[in-house]
Each structure stands twice: as C-alpha cells, then as structure tokens.
C-alpha cells in the first residue's frame, strides 16, 4: 500500500457542510472566525441556547483543517503549566480550580460526543504521565506532591503499576482520570454538521485580513473577497492573531509532529495497553507520547517543536523530515513488536504557545464586541471546547463561573518575535526539544 504524501494526517473529517467563499457584503448577529473546536463549540452553544440567532462561521480553509483536525486525539485533564508551577505562580486555590476546570472540560467533551451521536473513535481509558529518566522522575515527584497537597485525585504509579498497564519499562507515573482518546477531526466535523443543522452558515477558503471597529454597531471583518458586519465577533484564530494585528499579546506558532502506523501484531498491541485504551505521555516537557488506535495501529507525537515563521519551505521540510525520523526511531524503541511495523502517515500541525503557558480567552482590548480564543499551548482538545462554551455564555449575558480562571484575560505576555528575538526563541525551543529527546 502506498503511503500518503508527507503532511497528510491520519484523520479525515469526512462529510462537511457546504462552505462557499465569502463574497460581497455579509451580515450576521454573531460572526465566528475559525472553524476549529473552539470556534465551532462557541457557534454550537450559541445556536443551542439562542435559537434564531443569525450565526456565520468563516474559516481560512475548512473545518478541521487546522490544529483541531491535525492533533493526536489525547483527551485528558491539563490546563496551563504543570500543577506544581501553577501553585507557585497563582497559589494553591487557583491551581486547584485550574485542574478541576480541566477535568470538567474533559467530561464536557465526553458528554458532547454522546449528544452528537456520531462515531468519533472514542475510547474511554486512562492517561498516564510516565518517565524513564531521572529528570522526569523529579518532575513527577513535584507534581505528585502538589496534587496530594491540593487534595486532587491523581494517583501515583510505581514501575510495577505502569507495567500492569503498558509493557514499557517506565520508572514511575501519574494516573489521570477522566481521560479518553478519540478522532479529533471526526469530532470537529461532527460539530460543524451539528451547527449547520441548527442554521449556522459556513464560509470557507476565506482568511481574515483585518478587524475594524464598526461605524454603527459591532465589528467589520475584512476577507479577500468581501466584508462581514456583525453585532458580535469571536476570533478563534489561535496564532494567526499576529497576522491581523490583534492586540492579544504574543501567541507564538509552533509546529509539532506526529505519525501513525499500520496495525500492530496482537502481542505488541496488548502490551501497549490495547484493550484498556491507555495513552502515555512522557513527564519531560516537549517529550514524546503515544496512544493506540481502534484499528490496531499506534499514533505518536512530540519530541520536537519548531518556530516556523521566517523559515523557507526547503528548510522547514528538512526539519520536518528530521523530526519524523527521530519520532519513528523512538516509537520503535518502545517494544520489539514495533521494530518492523509500517508507518502509514506523517504530518505536522500548528499550535499556539504563550510566554506563560496560559491560554487567552477574553474580549479584545480596543475592539468592542470582539472576543478572542487561542493559545492552548498543546492542551487544546478539551480546553478549546470549554473556551467556546464559556465565550458563548458571555455573549449571551449568562452569569460567569464566579472568580475568573487565570486564562480569562485579554492578552498574553509579549515575546520578541521579530528580528534577533525570533532567532533566540527558535534556539530556545530547539534546546528544549534536544533536552527532551536525550532524556527519552
């Protein structure tokens, strides 16, 4: 069987609603720019809670074309920095609220999959954060202590406890529940179809060029072939915010890498947790991880990240090939049964990183009736849907959750992304990746 071209993800969103280009002058009560999980969740909750609201969703390409359809489908609780760092920065009460919010986000996605009643490849299971290195063991010990002091249900696993779940010689681990794995493009596509069934209009192949305060009410959104005037707008555009000059701080694009294999032999599949559906994430920052697929294959990601801005296509492709090559070698080292398994897909995706590891979910300063969602820092599968629901409630004037979470804010810290600063950022990210690869 011929392998798809490099860059083709394993996932396929299947049938999507019609998405003509946006031409001429278009109006809407609410405009949602970005047809990923955050934007579609926002549109879905708006349409469900306020039937009759005129909602338009516009995407630079199509639903699931970006990070929401190019992830690896690990659904687990994580929000912002590791819990021990969150305690130091925000205090124990806020750190506990952050973790519990991420747990609720996972539960809400599981509930959403049930309500959408579509096959999303969902497999409920456990997520293990494990390590084989001394540095990872130190990180796990700090996090385990913080979880215990905060009264959070995150059990510690010994080497034997990890081995009972996956046959890889990890030293120790933490067990996160609830958790699951799913097909992220299928979920995104299902949300798009559910939105269309509720009357939401879609426009595709229409990248946002500019945002301007409207003359009378609401913003003016400028696209290559037309303009959209809305009473309110939600810009779920992640790191593309910089390209249109949104004052949301720095949401840095990072390119991350993944691959998928053909079905494994039965012994290897079961040794890696086949029937239970575990996902395993290494405790070292930026380190690799893996999960099993319902068809018997395995998906792996992590280990390398690249700041892609300013790199020409040849240089970027060379970095991709190097990242995929290392990830394949790491995957094959996990179990003898993986030594000859065929890699069927290799792809990359863009995530949005911030200088303090926190998302940005809030009104855009200087732009009345415009909200922004982005910067989930690689933990966006559950959080993106939660952010979309939160913004939908805010637009409808519903009461908030009480004390705002640390990511309910209008901007992230600024980072030096131009000139010499970009080279320094690229070097820093590269150093983190090399350190992670050495420890794995």
From TrEMBL:
Gene3D superfamilies: D-Amino Acid Oxidase, subunit A, domain 2, FAD/NAD(P)-binding domain. It comes from the Bacteria. Its EC number is 1.-.-.-. It is an enzyme of class 1 (oxidoreductase). Keywords: Oxidoreductase. Residues 29-392 form the FAD dependent oxidoreductase domain. The keyword Oxidoreductase applies. The keyword Oxidoreductase applies. Pfam families: DAO. GO terms for molecular function: oxidoreductase activity. InterPro entries: FAD-dep_OxRdtase, FAD/NAD-bd_sf. This is NAD(P)/FAD-dependent oxidoreductase.
């Amino acid at each position: 069987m011929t392998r798809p071209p490099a860059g083709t993800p394993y996932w396929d969103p299947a049938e999507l609603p019609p998405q003509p280009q946006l031409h001429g002058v278009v109006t809407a009560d609410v405009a949602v720019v970005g047809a990923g999980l955050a934007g579609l969740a926002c549109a879905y909750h708006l349409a469900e809670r306020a039937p009759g609201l005129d909602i338009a969703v516009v995407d630079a390409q199509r639903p699931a074309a970006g990070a929401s359809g190019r992830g690896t489908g690990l659904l687990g609780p994580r929000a912002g920095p590791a819990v021990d760092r969150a305690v130091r920065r925000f205090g124990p009460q806020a750190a506990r609220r952050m973790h519990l919010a991420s747990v609720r986000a996972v539960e809400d996605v599981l509930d959403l999959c049930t309500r959408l009643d579509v096959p999303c490849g969902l497999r409920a299971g456990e997520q293990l954060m494990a390590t084989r290195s001394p540095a990872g063991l130190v990180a796990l010990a700090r996090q385990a202590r913080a979880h215990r002091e905060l009264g959070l249900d995150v059990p510690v696993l010994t080497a034997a406890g990890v081995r009972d779940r996956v046959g890889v010689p990890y030293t120790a681990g933490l067990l996160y529940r609830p958790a699951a794995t799913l097909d992220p493009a299928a979920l995104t596509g299902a949300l798009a179809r559910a939105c269309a069934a509720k009357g939401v209009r879609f426009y595709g192949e229409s990248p946002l060029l500019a945002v301007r305060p409207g003359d009378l009410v609401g913003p003016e959104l400028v696209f290559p072939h037309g303009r959209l005037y809305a009473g309110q707008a939600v810009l779920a555009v992640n790191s593309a915010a910089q390209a249109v000059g949104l004052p949301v701080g720095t949401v840095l694009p990072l390119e991350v890498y993944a691959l998928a294999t053909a079905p494994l032999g039965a012994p290897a599949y079961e040794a890696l947790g086949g029937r239970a559906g575990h996902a395993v994430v290494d405790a070292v920052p930026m380190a690799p991880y893996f999960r099993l697929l319902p068809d018997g294959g395995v998906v792996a990601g992590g280990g390398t990240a690249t700041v892609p801005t300013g790199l020409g296509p040849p240089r970027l492709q060379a970095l991709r090939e190097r990242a995929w090559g290392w990830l394949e070698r790491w995957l094959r080292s996990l179990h003898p049964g993986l030594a000859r398994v065929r890699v069927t897909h290799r792809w990359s995706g863009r995530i949005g990183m911030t200088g303090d590891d926190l998302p940005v979910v809030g009104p855009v300063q200087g732009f009345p009736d415009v909200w922004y969602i982005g910067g989930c820092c690689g933990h966006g599968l559950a959080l993106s849907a939660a952010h979309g629901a939160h913004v939908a409630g805010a637009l409808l004037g519903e009461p908030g959750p009480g004390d705002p979470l640390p990511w309910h804010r209008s901007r992230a810290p600024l980072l030096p992304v131009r000139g010499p600063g970009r080279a320094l950022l690229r070097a820093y990210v590269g150093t983190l990746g090399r350190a992670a690869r050495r420890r794995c």
